[in-house]
Amino acid sequence: MTPIAHSPHAHAPVSIGKVMATVLLALTPATLFGFWLYGWPAVNLWAVALIAAILGEAFVVRMQGRKVRPVLMDGSGILTAWLLALSLPPYAPWWIAVLGSLFAVIIGKQVFGGLGQNVFNPAMAARVMLLISFPLEMTTWVAPSQAPGLLESLRITFFSQPIDGMASASLLGHVKTEFTRGIGLDQALAGYYAPMDMLWGSRTGSLGETAAVLLLIGGLFLIARRIITWHAPFAMLLGVAAPALLFNMIDGNHYAGPMVHLLSGGLMLGAFFIVTDPVTSPNTALGQFIFGLSCGLLTWIIRTWGGYPEGVAFAVLLMNAATPIIDQYVKPRIYGRDRKGVALSVKKG
Amino acid sequence: MKLFDLKGGVHPEGKKDLSAERHIRALPLPKKLYVPLQQHIGAPATPVVNVGDKVLKGQLIASAQGAVSSSIHAPTSGTIVALGDHVAPHPSGLPVPTITLESDGEDRWGMTKVVDDPLALAPEDIAAHVAAAGIVGLGGATFPSALKLNLSRGSGVQTLIMNGGECEPYLTCDDRIMRERAVEIVEGIRLIAHAVAAKEVLVGIEDNKPEAIAAMQEAAQGTAIKVVAMPSMYPMGSEKQIIQVLTGKEVPAGGRPADIGVLVHNVATAFAVQQAIRYGKPLISRIVTVSGGAILQPCNLEVLIGTPVQELIEFSGGYRQPAARLVLGGPMMGQQFTNTNVPVVKGTSGVLALMASEIGQAEASPCIRCSTCVRACPVGLLPLEMAAHIRTADLAGAAALGLKDCIACGSCSYVCPAHIPLVHFFNYAKGDLAAQERSKLKQEATKKLADARNERLARIERERAEAAAKRKAAREAKAAKEAAAKAAEEAA
Amino acid sequence: MLIAAVVSLTLLGTVFGLLLGVAARYLKVEGNPLVAELEQLLPGSQCGQCGFPGCSGAAQALADGSASLALCPPGGRAVMQALANKLGIEADLSGVEDKGPMIAEIREEICIGCTRCFKVCPTDAIMGAAQQIHVVFREACTACGKCEAVCPTESVKLQPIPATLQSWYWNKPQAGEAA
User: CB-CB: which of B387, B443, B450 is closest to C75?
Assistant: First the structure.
């Protein structure tokens, strides 16, 4: 006799693959913008990261004796590599992308037991590993609107051709450097901070982190498709903007204002695509709000007082570690019980 | 009227248009009827007929046993041909005790007692009539209705809620009965309200059934009954959820609606109550929706209890194409069955023949903790966490997370992008915990028996030793006496 | 600085060491209550199937860690789970082949009424008298198997309890890598 299937005998038209594909679709505009802005080296880097992730994951899954196809088809490895690529400097050498991708899918994910088991966001773990291990390559930025040809791009990506004369600094890095020279925010920002350019993403920065508006559109698309909820992204933006506004009002020459913070670094990518990673974030709406808010606050603190100019990746990893604690204490109230789980008292009328 | 929010819930595709416009038709009299003795929550009924007996339609053939049980009546006139096991509408596929009745084709009623002015009856008489008619909750829970009336009469009812939610996709049996028999239903509602002295009567109907709402509103004019349109959402028709939406109150965990002064009955139950009291007709038939993509002509049928499901499918034109799965009830909480000889019972609301595309089954993949299930759960549980505990055999951990509060509505399984069979995990765990509880109780009982036996053996041993000691003492005393006598003799 | 650190650490070590010593002396637990608690969890029928002298012997062995959690066949998975919880160790229930609940059944046609079985039954679950057919009370039988061992005609046999609608429940889903 065929085994009797348990109810329900209907299912919403969803699958893991569809969820991942939707997220990739939401990332596409910002990615294409990055390609356009930085030219062929960016494309090379992105492709290398994806290929390394696919091959690396296939290899380890096979070593574990599991079926490779379903693991690759769920699309999570591709998404991880894609997110990592977007957070890399666009002219970084190829091996940065390869190392990062392999670290993300193997150490960051498969070592923990595969999809759904990892504690830390794999893309952010890889980014932090790269930043600490290879500070020079990870902080060599270029100013946009230089478009090397395809051949030259191959030399940049694969033969680490020096990019003298093109080197630039990201806004947050620039501000931090200027502070160490005793120069205030007014002067540091002059000529560097152009709000409209920041909004559209025409600025120095990582491959796909600069297009704030496009990332915002992608994020809103995911919210509309109910892939993510507004809680974590909104809370993260709030967690950065609120202290920024407060301190900017106290001392405008020392603390950058909320718009500078919101539009720079990897905040938009982080808010809509990193802290919303289901695996490493809390289960409940309130938990996600707390998680996002803490990520935002930590980001602002690291940016303002930390040693690194950007803090999104560090903040996310710190809060990933706190996720089980948040889940332990923030639980939904069960029907017919109070918050502590005690049955409601019987009252007449 | 102000409605209250429901947390969670899902919006499955309704699919009600397949059968919603089909008038209720009576299924032709089947040749054989298989009437199980247990069609309700509680103890099975005991047969009061023997093989070979001739029975009339509506005659009692099995009577209720104990406090929670329900009587069963002959669905038509004919001969009892077997008292034995027959396949049950149950996922186990186990055979259950069943009365087999061969129809004589005359469909002749036995004596029926007509009550002209039912509202003049005393409340306890109404409950007695309902009990005698073998009425159980027709929404699917099949709890004996008379018992519910009696329990509520004791505690007082503030709000009587009549459940016309019918939130399961495909099913249109309640929709049709409200459209076509609204006057009878309203009379049934008034009888129930009278039986429990309800202060307020609400009829909750999902707003995807505007015709049913209109029909019920018209029939309820001039009465105190309020017909309320509720938003369409699954599981709106679940007892706890409909109470929450209409009154804003929650049934305390482990409690009953009566604890908060609420009583919920299904609209089809109200019809059965009216038929039982006004015309003396026991519950021997019900409306069943036959639907699904694989059914040629989806329809709503009035079916005698005990009719094999095969007859319903044939009457609906048979299959349009081979069915991937056959289901009794709705797709969210219904049960798959494979043997089309299973009979329609009092709780059967639908017979569905589904295509593979409608089921949407897929191989389960790992949980990505997306917490869609947390948002879908109408109870406020963490399905993903509970399933993770159960998977690693930590049933106690799952219970600590509120497993027992799960209503098994299936919302979490329905939305899970990883296609994890969450409710299956929960029902397995509930069953296993109950089995552990049973064996623990048995173990405590047998331990007492073992202790008693050991004590008894020890006592027997002690008594034997005492007896031996007594004998020895007596012997020694005697010997001493004799010695003393002897000494005295010698001395003398 | 160095001296301050050394002194303070030494002081801390001494104070905590003393505290621990005092606590060990005054909060001492007489005997091992664990054995008694474990014995409470066992069926108490002293059937001896575990190979230890009765349930108290089994409890002693469990407390020593010299016996497996799966030592008690009549107790089944429920007892094993309870023991695991008490001992604070993981019970690998999945590995245990649970034959499911069993019950002694007497085949009446070959029972000679010798009364041996009900004399050995630790829970008085068998009733009968000399030259009379014996019957088993299902509710009291722990399926310890003592009766099966002494029956001269092999009339008593342990049988699985047949599943009923009341005892049936869903199996555990076989969902591969899921959840």
Answer: B443
Judging contacts by C-beta atoms under 8 Å, the chain B residues touching residue A16 are 365, 368, 417-418
- Average pLDDT in the B10-14 region? 93
Residue ranges covered by each domain of chain B: 16-28+117-304, 372-432
> Tens digit of pLDDT for each residue in A46-67?
999 999 999 999 999 999 888 8
The number of domains in chain A is 1
The answer to whether position A323 is within a domain reads yes
Helix (H) or strand (E) holding B313: helix B309-315
pLDDT digits (tens, 9 = 90+) for A300-329: 999 998 888 888 999 999 999 999 999 999
A237 domain-assigned: yes
DSSP A267-291: HHHIIIIITT-STTS-SSHHHHHHH
Contact B358 A10 (CB under 8 A): yes
Residue B210's nearest CA partner among B178, B251, B243, B249 is B178
CATH of the domain at A216: 1.10.3430
Task: Work out the burial of residue A261: count CB atoms within 10 Å of its CB; fewer than 13 is exposed, 13-18 middle, 19 or more buried.
Answer: buried
Q: Provide the mean pLDDT of chain A.
A: 88
**Is B266 strand, coil or helix?**
strand
| Rounded-to-10 torsion of CA B314, B317, B321, B326 | -40
**Distance of alpha carbon A110 from alpha carbon A105, whole angstroms:** 6
ipTM: 0.88
Phi first, then psi: give them for residue C117, nearest 5 degrees.
-65, -45
* pTM for the structure as a whole: 0.86
Tell me: domain C33-95, CATH 1.10.150.120, correct? no
Chains touching A (at least 3 CB pairs under 8 A) are B, C
Contact at CB, A348 and B331, closer than 8 angstroms: no
Say yes or no to pLDDT of B432 above 80.
Answer: yes
- Domain range for A130 is 16-327
Is residue A87 domain-resident?
yes
Mean pLDDT confidence for B431-450: 84
Query: What is the C-alpha to C-alpha distance for residues B151 and B135, in angstroms, rounded to an integer?
Result: 15
* Chain B partners (3+ C-beta pairs within 8 A): A, C
**CATH fold for domain B16-28+117-304:** Rossmann fold (3.40.50)
Residue in B129, B136, B145, B134 with CA at minimum distance from that of residue B72: B134
What integer pLDDT is reported at residue C27 of this predicted model?
81
Q: Which helix (H) or strand (E) covers residue B131, if one does? A: helix B123-132
Q: Where do the structural domains in chain C lie, given as residue ranges?
A: 33-95, 102-160
Mark which residues 114-173 of C lie under 8 Å from A by CB: 170, 173
